[in-house]
Hints:
Elements: H1 2-19, E1 32-34, E2 36-37, H2 51-54, E3 63-66, E4 79-85, E5 89-97, E6 119-125, E7 132-139, E8 144-150, E9 154-156, E10 164-170, E11 173-181, E12 195-203, E13 208-211, E14 227-230, E15 241-253, E16 258-271, E17 276-282, H3 310-313, E18 344-346, E19 355-364, E20 369-378, E21 381-387, E22 393-399, E23 402-413, E24 417-428, E25 434-445, E26 451-463, E27 468-479, E28 484-493, E29 510-520, E30 528-542, E31 548-561, E32 566-574, E33 578-580, E34 591-593, E35 596-604, E36 611-622, E37 628-639, E38 644-665, E39 670-692, E40 695-716, E41 722-724, E42 734-750, E43 753-767, H4 774-784, E44 787-795, E45 798-799, H5 800-809
Parallel strand pairs: 1-14, 2-4
Antiparallel strand pairs: 3-13, 4-5, 5-11, 6-7, 6-12, 7-8, 8-9, 10-11, 12-13, 12-14, 15-16, 15-44, 15-45, 16-17, 17-19, 18-21, 19-20, 20-23, 21-22, 23-24, 24-25, 25-26, 26-27, 27-28, 28-29, 29-30, 30-31, 31-32, 32-35, 33-34, 35-36, 36-37, 37-38, 38-39, 39-40, 40-41, 40-42, 42-43, 43-44
Amino acid sequence: MHNNFVFCLLLFIFSNYFFGQEVLNTKSVKKITKAEKNTSIISIDGQLDEEEWSKVLPAKDFYTLSPDNGNLESPELRTEVKVLYDNDAVYIGATLYDNHPEKILKEITERDNFGTSDSFGVFINGYNDGQQDFQFYVTAANGQADCNFTSQDGEDYSWNAIWSSKAKITDYGWVVEIKIPYAALRFPKKTEQVWGINFFREVRRTRQKYTWSPVYNTIGAFSQQAGILKGIENIQPPTRLFLIPYTSAYYNTNKEDSELTLKGGLDIKYGINDAFTLDAILIPDFGQTKFDNVELNLGPFEQQFNENRPFFTEGTDLFNKGNLLYTRRIGASPQFYPDLNNNEVIEEFPTTTNLLNAIKISGRNNDGLGIGFLNAITEETKVIIKDNASGNTREAIVAPLTNYNVTVFDQRFNQNSSVTFINTNVTRNGSYRDANVAGLVFDLNTPKNTYNLSGKINLSNTFDIENKNGIESNLALGETSGNYRFSIGGEYLSKDFDKNDLGIVFLNNYYSYYANASYRILTPTKTFNSFNVGLYTYMEHNNASNEIQNNNFSLDVNTTSKDNHYFGFGYRIKPFERYDYYEPRHEGRYLILPRLQSYWAGFSSNYNYKFAFDLQLSHLFYDQSGRYDFDIFISPRYRFSDKFSLIYSINPYIQKNNIGYIDYLSTSDEIIIAQRDRHTINNALTSKFSINSQMNFNLSVRHYWSFAENNTIYILQDNGRLLEKNDYTDNKNSNFSTWNLDLSYSWWFAPGSQATILYRNNAANYSNDIDKNFKTNFDHLFTDNLNHTFSISIRYFIDYNQAKNWIKKS
C-alpha cells in the first residue's frame, strides 16, 4: 500500500513534465454589440428575410471555448449574430456557417436535453453584474433548452421560460431565429439598458465550443467575461403574471382494488416588480413525477432521494445556499410513530403527507441583493390502529399540521463575491417537535478570480422535550485559476447540530480538515483534449474521543482524448483504522473499521457515434481476511436515428464479508453485528422516440435486486472489536427487489402548455428468506405485488399580456 501511494504521488509531481504548456494571457477589454429598434413584424421562421435584419451590424469573430481555448474561429465555421428589439421582446438572429452542412448533427430530443446535436445559445444578464445569466439554447433539430446560471451554483436547467425559436438547416450551415419576451428576463427600470451578453455555439461532431466574447479558462469565471449589449432604450418591464391551470385523472389498480381520482388546480407566477417573482401552487399535483430509485438500505442513515417536483427544483438557487434545505422533507412520510399497546397494529402507514399549498418569492434587485422566501404547509395525517384481540380501532396522529419556511438574503458585490443569511424553520401544530436553523455563508473571490475564500456557520435549535442547540461551520481557501490549483479547509459539527427537520445531515460531532492539489492542461496537446490529475487528502475525528472517524488519501486522473473519448482512473487508500460511531446505533458505542485501499477506472466513448458505451469498475481491498467489494457498471447505448435511441445499463455489486449491524438485545445490552455477503444487481433501460421537438415518447424501466446473507454473528465489545456469538438464531437476512416502469407521451401543444399521458407499473418485495434464483425473485414481483397507474394531465399556460390582447380583440 505504501509503494502504491508513492507511485501515485510521483505521477502527480511529474505530470507537468509530460503535459506542460503556457498559460493564456487574459484580455480586459469587453466586446460590445448593439441592438437595433424593430418597427415591423418579425416572423420566427428561421429565415432572417425581414428587411429589419439587414439594417443590423452583426456580432462576429467568435473565440474557441474548448478544447483549444482562446483561439479565433476558423472561417469555414464562422458565426454572425444580430440583435433587434421592440416594446415586447428582444430578437436574436444567428447565421452559423458550416462548410459541411450534411455533417451537422441534429438528434431530436425533448426540452432541456441537447442530445447529439449542434447548438446555439444566447446568455443575457439584464443587470450586467457578472453573476447571473438567463441562458437560451436552440439545437439544430429545433429543440429548446433554457437555464438560470449563477457564478456560485452553475447551471439550473429546472428553470423554464416562455420564448420562441426556429432552427433551419441551409446549404451553407444553419440559421437560428429567437424571440425572447421581456417577461422571461430581469432588468432594471432605466431609459438606456446596458446588458451583459454572450453568444455560444457548439459544433457537436468535433465537440468544439465557441463564444462571441472570449472566455479564458485561466480565469474560471464564465459569466464575468461576457460582452456588452447596448442600444435598447425606452422599454418597460412588462407585467409578469402567468396562470397555469391544470386538470388530471388517475386510474390506479392492483390485485386488491381499483380507484379513479380526478384532480384540478392552479399554479401562479407573478412578477411583484422588475426583480422579484411570486410562485404559488394551489392544490398541487405531483402524481407524474419520476419514480425514486429505492435501494436495500442496511446502513444507519436514510436513503437520500433526488427532488423531482418542478416547484421545488425550478429557480431554487437562492434557497440552496448553506446546504440547509432538503425539499423532500416537505410532504415526506410521517416522522412520528405512535405507541402501540399489546396486540395493536397499524393497518397502513402512509408513505407521504399531503401538501396543501406552497409559495415562494425570489429575485434580486439592482443593488445585487437577492431575497428568497419559501413557505409550504402539509396537512395533519392520521393512521388507524387496530387491536387484533378485540377488533377495536382507534386513530393516532403521525404527522401534525406543519408549516415549513425558508428565508434568504444574499448580497452580491464586486461582481464575483457574496454574503448570505439563510433561515429555515419548521413549526408543527400541538406539542410536537419544532426546529429552527440559521446560517451565514460567504463566498469571496479576488478581483481577478485567482483565489477564493469561502465558509459558513450554521446554528440549529430544536424544541422538543429537551431543547438542543448545535453548530456547523467550515472554512476553505483555494486557488481557482491557472494550471496548478489547490485548496485547504476544515469543518466542525457539534454533537447536537441537527438540521434534519428541513435539511439533511448524516454525521455530526466531528471535526475534519483537508488539502487538495491538482494540475490540468488549459489547451489541448497532441494526445489529449483535456487532462486533469488531482491529489486529495482528508482526515476526520470524533469530537469527544479525537479518534479517527474517517481518512482518505487519493489520486484521480481524468482525460479526454483527441477523439473525445473519456478515460479516468484513480487510487485511494485509508491507511488508518476508523472509529465508526454511527453503525452501532447506540450513543457512545463504536465499531472499528479496517484499513483499505481501492482502485477505480472508467471509460466513456464519444456519444457522437451511433453506438457508444460507458464502463466503470472499482475494487476495494480491506485489511481483513477475505473481505472485498467489487462494483462494475456497464451501459451501452445506440442511436438508431435522430428520433429513436436506447440506453441500457447493468450494475452488479458484490460485497464479500461485509460487516454491519443487525440487532440489539435489550435484555443483555448486546449490539449484534453480522459478517455477511451482499449481492446487488441493478438493471435499467431508458428509451425515447421523438416525433418532433414538441412530441416525445419516453420509456424508463428499472429492476433492482439485493440480498444480504449473514454468515457469522458477533457481539460488539466496548473496545469496538468483535466477539463471535454462537447462540444467536434469529433470521436477520435481507432480500429486497423492486420494479418500476414508466411509459409516457408528452406534447407541448402551445408555449408553456403540455399534455402528458403516463402508464406506470411498480412492485416491491422484502423478505428475510433468501432465494438466490434470479428468475424466481423476478417472477414473484409480478404475481402478488404489481400496481398499475394510468394518468392523463393537461397544463395550460396563460400569459396575462397575451390574454389582455385577446380580450381587447374580442
